[in-house]
Write a structure and sequence with these properties.
heterodimer; A: alpha+beta; CBS-domain; four-stranded mixed β-sheet; two-stranded antiparallel sheet; 8 helices; 6 strands; globular; B: mainly alpha; 24 helices; disordered N terminus
Chain lengths: 162, 456
């Protein structure tokens, strides 16, 4: 099995000039699979369809996280409503400001172990899948790899490579 | 005067080595000011050139105090950094900051004034960069809590940090360097600089009250955010905290008595660092030692060697002759020229390379005025003392003159920008330059009255 066999084909993406508010709408309503809505992250594509970044749930959390809290242990001294306040302040910021620029990707023909390798080494839970033209064609999720692995554990008959 | 007579009057020759060393020195300082290449890389490469071109022999650079690395400065800096790195995780600095904000009762200006004073005191005991690294995050948090503009808080803290750092031997790198070169001890600084720094701080608080005092308003429910913070939550490791405070107390006591006990400050600090490492029960000291700001340390090492090179070839002697020409050997004039020149020079360039150059220059100048004296008797000549103090006051306080005048300024401006509040170069200068001029003016009056009028 290769990356392209397991990936979910790309349906939605974000634009760099969208606001975080618009991005939040797309993230919440994007179709994950047949019955589920809401995704934890989407690639950011420019006008030519090239991926220039990725906006994930973590980036949304970082958007409201003041830089000074990362410098010292001050989490104890925050207050009720701080997150909501900052969320309102940040909603008009652009996707391009908050997205992760160095995205860990995988080629569509990569074997699954390479996907596992990338996820473990780079500590990411989803990988944009690229085709030969370096265009994003789909997303590969940790959850789907988990199902492949556990299915093999449970199924006595299925062996190694097919 | 014929050229032979000129050469006879000068104890150095302007040969190839002289011009090579001068070129390395000027080029290195120009590149450092231009910020095209990281200053540490420039300093280390320049030092390498001085050695490989045999301007300076390795033995001179490593082992001769006059030409080489001042290990007293290096080990004092490293040791203090180790002590702070071990103290930080205990949460003591968060505790102090939150406690200060609560003393301020959530009143915006009261908090600003208390933070400025706390920053000044911490800067006098730790180095300024460490202090602002610890104070700035809390300042931003408090400004957010009160929903006020954080920029006045940040500016008032960093300016206070440069003023406070002037007060003690360990407060600011120029003082550490001057102390080592001039063989001055901790109490000399307390006796000669601390009193006027206290005066400056009183004036400073009055000035920030005038500038920002009336503009700062907040609502009662926001004050409640500050008052409901529990500073005790900040303490993460009470056992280590007790050990750290014990060692810090020991080190500060050591500083107070080091002159009497004939210890160098670096000895006191290194002992403290070793003791706290031992008490910390750390099995793996790697990360504590890795957190030492090695780029700063190597910047010093490189500069000492570069300056050693130009001392050896006589450039510094040539410069000191020129200074004496200008001031006609009048030491009051020399003090004043050095103080004001140092202030403006430190506002434009890093005060560390500046003082590294001025130290041997002042020592050399003294040698020309009193050729019969040497060593401590020369460096501590009563007429020379005000010159050292003027250099310290000018170089430290000059740091406030611009956003690049001191490392602490660069850090605060950077942190502020990260927090989404850019402080432009001009904005910094609009507040920093008047404060610099004011504090240097106070210093001028002080030096004149204390050392030339009252002669105490």
């Amino acid at each position: 099995m290769k990356a392209k066999d397991l990936m979910i084909p790309l349906q939605e993406y974000l634009k760099p000039d969208s606001t975080l508010k618009e991005a939040a709408n797309i993230l919440r309503s994007a179709k994950r699979d047949e019955e589920k809505y809401g995704v934890k992250g989407l690639p950011v594509l420019d006008d030519k369809g090239e991926m220039i970044g990725f906006l994930s749930m973590g980036d949304i959390l970082k958007a409201v996280f003041p830089s000074y809290l990362s410098l010292m242990d001050l989490g104890h001294f925050t207050w009720d409503g701080m997150v909501e306040n900052l969320a309102k302040k940040m909603k008009d910021h652009k996707v391009s400001e908050m997205m992760t620029r160095d995205v860990i990707t995988i080629h569509e023909d990569a074997p699954l172990m390479e996907c596992v390798d990338h996820m473990i080494k780079h500590n990411v839970k989803r990988l944009p899948v690229l085709n030969k033209e370096s265009k994003v064609v789909g997303m590969l999720y940790e959850r789907d790899l988990f199902f492949v692995i556990t299915r093999s554990m449970l199924d006595e008959n299925s062996g190694g490579a097919r | 005067m014929t050229s032979e007579a000129a050469a006879a009057a000068q104890p150095f020759v302007m040969d190839n080595a002289f011009w090579t060393a001068t070129a390395i020195f000027l080029l290195a300082y120009t590149v450092i000011v231009s910020e095209k290449i990281h200053k540490t890389i420039v300093a280390v490469f320049g030092a390498g050139l001085m050695l490989v071109l045999k301007i300076l022999h390795q033995h001179e650079a490593f082992h001769i105090e006059e030409f080489g690395i001042d290990w007293n400065v290096i080990f004092l800096l490293i040791s203090m950094m180790i002590i702070i790195n071990l103290m930080r995780p205990t949460g003591v600095f968060e505790y102090i900051a939150i406690k200060s904000a609560k003393w301020g009762k959530g009143e915006p200006f009261r908090i600003m004034a208390i933070f400025a004073i706390v920053t000044a005191v911490l800067s006098a005991l730790l180095d300024n960069v460490t202090t602002v690294l610890l104070i700035t995050p809390v300042t931003l948090l408090i400004a957010d809590a009160l929903e006020v503009d954080p920029v006045p808080y940040l500016l008032s803290c960093v300016l206070a940090s440069n003023i406070g750092g002037t007060a003690t031997l360990i407060g600011d790198p120029p003082n550490i360097m001057i102390a080592s070169k001039a063989q001055l001890n901790f109490m000399d600084f307390i006796y000669h600089l601390a009193p006027i720094v206290v005066v400056m701080m009183v004036v400073y608080i009055a000035v920030i009250k005038l500038i920002w005092g009336r503009k700062m308003k907040t609502r009662d429910e926001l004050k409640e955010r500050i008052m409901s913070m529990n500073e005790h939550d900040a303490i993460k490791d009470p056992v280590m905290l007790k050990k750290s405070l014990f060692v810090l107390f020991l080190v500060l006591t050591g500083f107070v008595f080091h002159g009497m006990l004939h210890f160098q400050p670096a000895t006191v600090a290194l002992f403290g660092a070793g003791l706290l490492l031992l008490l910390s029960n750390t099995h793996e000291p790697h990360h504590i030692l890795a957190e030492v700001e090695w780029p700063t340390i190597f910047f010093f090492i490189g500069l000492f060697i570069i300056v050693g090179g130009v001392v050896k070839v006589g450039l510094i002697k040539w410069m000191s002759i020129k200074v004496l020409d200008i001031t006609q050997g009048n030491l009051f004039a020399t003090s004043m020229v050095i103080m004001w020149f140092s202030a403006f020079a430190s506002a434009i360039v890093d005060n560390i390379p500046y003082v590294a150059t001025m130290n041997p220059l002042v020592a050399d100048m003294a040698g020309q005025i009193w050729p019969e004296l040497s060593g401590r008797a020369l460096l501590h000549h009563p007429d020379l003392m005000p010159v050292w103090w003027s250099l310290a006051l000018g170089a430290c306080l000059g740091g406030n003159g611009s956003a690049i005048g001191a490392s602490a300024n660069v850090i605060v401006v950077g942190m502020s920008e990260k927090a989404g509040r850019k402080i432009s170069f001009m904005k910094f200068m609009a507040y920093g330059m008047p404060i610099m001029l004011l504090t240097v003016a106070i210093s001028t009056i002080y030096v004149w009255i204390r050392y030339y009028l009252l002669k105490i």
